[in-house]
Amino acid sequence: MQTHRSPPPTWLMGLGFFPLGASGSVTLITVPQLLAANHVPEQQIAASTAIVLIPGFVSFVVSPLLDWRYSRRAYSIVFAVLGAIGQFMALAFIHSLALVTACLFVSMFAISMNVSAVGGWFGNQTQTEKKDALGAWFTVANLGAGGVVATIAIYLLRGLPYLLGDFLLALTILGAIPLYLWVDCPPADDRLASESFRAFVRDVAALLKKPSVLWTLLLFVAPCASFALTNLIGGLGRDFHTPETMVGFIGGVGVSVAGIIGSLLVPPLARKIEPRALYLMIGMVGAAFTLTLIVLGRTPATYAAASLGENIFQAASFSVGYAITLRTIGHENPLAATQFGLLTAAGSLPLAYMQAIDGHFYGMLGGASGSFLADAGISAAGCAALGLLFWALRRTIPKI
Q1: pLDDT tens digits for 223-236?
Q2: pLDDT of residue 1
Q3: Nearest 5°: CA angle at 261, between 131 and 178?
Q4: What percent of the chain has pLDDT over 90?
């Protein structure tokens, strides 16, 4: 007989996303540092990183499997372990770019599946009035874990025998497993677990036709609040005459603190402003902030303001995005992990194409000002267009 426990506090459930932050910091910060130290050209490092990030966009294709046959707890644990193994192997083969890329691709695919399983599972366990707070704490755990692991990673790898440091870094990905073992998890839906895969695919197709899902997909794929500049600013230190040590500090501790602040600003705002409107409002205010950076001097202070400000806005947009996703899922949804994976992947898409656009305008318009202008202009236009559309159709768009 299964014992049903009350869900733990919302802030504690947010730690379910700890593997995402821990693995992401190693993938995006530590590994590029190690490859650069091994004299791998920057273009090859960038290409490898781009390949490794592909699972974040495409894992939704197989995320329906997370709602079929086995419990989401089992999937969460298995994929966290696979993610840790993949990262360990990547760092162990750091002198082979091809093997590093292949192992990290596997690791990031596993972590993407872990996130979908945990998001669907914990979202189903959380009452509607607490979903906004859960979305914020997911972001806090992600960014906080990333900052901690990014800070200690090089020390572990350089200060200890290399493979021991590698092993300890891999263990950080498993830090949420005790939480997974504690939170109550119902078994897979009886009907979904027993039906044929063809029938299961039919259920997934029906999910994609739901109006609330389609409107959320439109909101997330639009260039409204991605704040992709956060992935570009790390390489702009020289443009702002900023020492590498300061860039590193801002990118580690500073960004983590900024992200946590941005995340925790959302729950009180979400109690007063409808989530879709709040998402667009963050995008519009953030675009205005980005425009102000164009007229500021190219100084270390401006660099710090740009990096911390963009990360505050991005963390806030991520938190609202998670809240919208969790509200769209609802409660006791048998396809919760499928839906979470689909909407999370949609939200990741603008990060890719806006980063490409920002980089293009950096070269076309002579530096950081070009990137700031493109990012702010496109984001503001997207927010305005969707805001007008949502207002015009406000009586027909389903509430979440």
Answers
A1: 999 898 887 787 68
A2: 41
A3: 55
A4: 54
Q: What is d(CA 290, CA 377) in angstroms, rounded to the nearest whole number?
A: 9
d(CA 238, CA 187): 53
For residue 160, give every residue at least 6 positions away whose Cβ sits within 8 Å of its Cβ, in sequence order, or none: 168
In total, the chain counts a number of residues equal to 400
Structure tokens at 247: 């860039």
Name the pTM for this structure.
Answer: 0.83
Are 135 and 323 spatial neighbours (Cβ–Cβ below 8 Å)? yes
**Alpha carbons 256 and 148: distance in angstroms, whole number:** 8
Distance CA 47, CA 151 (A): 24
Q: Residue 33: its pLDDT value, please?
A: 78
Distance CA 349, CA 205 (A): 21
List the one residue out of 135, 325, 112, 357 whose CA is nearest residue 231: 357
Give the model's confidence band at 199: pLDDT under 50 very low, under 70 low, under 90 confident, else very high.
low
**Could you tell me if 374 and 357 are in contact, meaning their C-beta atoms sit under 8 angstroms apart?**
yes
Helix (H, G, I), strand (E, B) or coil at 160: coil
Q: ∠ CA 264-270-274 to the nearest 5 degrees?
A: 150
Q: Nearest Cα to 384, choosing from 215, 228, 225?
A: 225
The pLDDT value given to residue 200: 62
Nearest in space to 332 (alpha carbons), one of 121, 119, 74, 72: 121
Which amino acid, residue 102? A
Q: Taking a C-beta distance cutoff of 8 angstroms, is the pair 66, 341 a contact? A: yes
167 neighbors 159 (Cβ within 8 angstroms): no
Inter-CA distances, 144 with 119, 170, 299, 315, 336, Å: 18, 17, 27, 11, 25
Tokens 């396809």 belong to residue: 335
Q: Is the dihedral of CA 26, 27, 29, 32 positive or negative?
A: positive
